[in-house]
TrEMBL record:
This is Probable aspartoacylase. One of its GO terms (molecular function) is aspartoacylase activity. The active site is at residue 163. The keyword Metal-binding applies. The lineage of its organism: Bacteria, Bacillati, Cyanobacteriota, Cyanophyceae, Synechococcales.
Amino acid sequence: MTVRRILIVSGTHGNEINPVWAVKQFNRKENSFNHGIEYEYIIGNPVAYEKGCRYIDVDLNRSFKESENLDQNKNSFYETNRANFLVDEFGIGGSKSCQIAIDLHTTTAHMGTSIVLYGRRFKDFCLAALLQNKFGLPIYLHEKDKAQTGFLVEAWPCGLVIEIGAVAQNFYDQNIINRFLIILGSLREEIDKLKNNLIELPKELIVHVHKGSIDYPRDEIGNIDGLIHPERINQDWKLIKKGDPLFLDSRGITIKYEGDQFVWPVFIGEVAYKEKKIAMSYTKKEVICSNNQWVYEFESL
């Protein structure tokens, strides 16, 4: 396995400040040793970070479209240009090319420490399986949603998101920071073991596959007319079955889940998703058998 260059991105959303602080601490420690792994550190959206807002024009983590789309929108939005810069600088063929991208995020939802994957790339499965095996982290596999595309890590051959919450926007939480530091340190350790053939994949990977998102109840003019039901608050990753409460509307009426299939909700009440008309997303649990091809493709990076 060749020496890896890993891009660590924090501040992709400018009001998610704990990852930025964690990366500063991690960088300070890693300067003394790198175990054959080179890191590049970047604040994804520095202007939004300085202003303490999620983004300036559009969501940066939805701005990594295909190259032709990026070119069409060139100079129109700050985040579109920023996405171009990051790919040109750190993407394959860039001046500081990295094979792996790790995008660090926080959420106001009660997601705990979790992993987000986009699509079923074997290299991503390999890295996610090692982390899940070590820490038991839940994995949100986001795929096949035309309304949600252009994620940062998709622009690199291998990449995943570390999502930690709940924490308020623009609020520092040392416990959240410590979790990022543990994950970042473990990534280096696990990749180092892979390099030296000292690790085997677990037998299976457990994922929660994205099945769709639901909006808040709304009135006839489009205003939110119902809140997350008290029994649903802070219940991310917990099973929902037919008849379970979802929302409590302005008249005190409970709106229940009417689907026939069991679902597991994620990002319940995420503040930043209100503008996307998402109150929560539904997932279905899936067990994927490990495959040695995952390791082979990861080693070929």
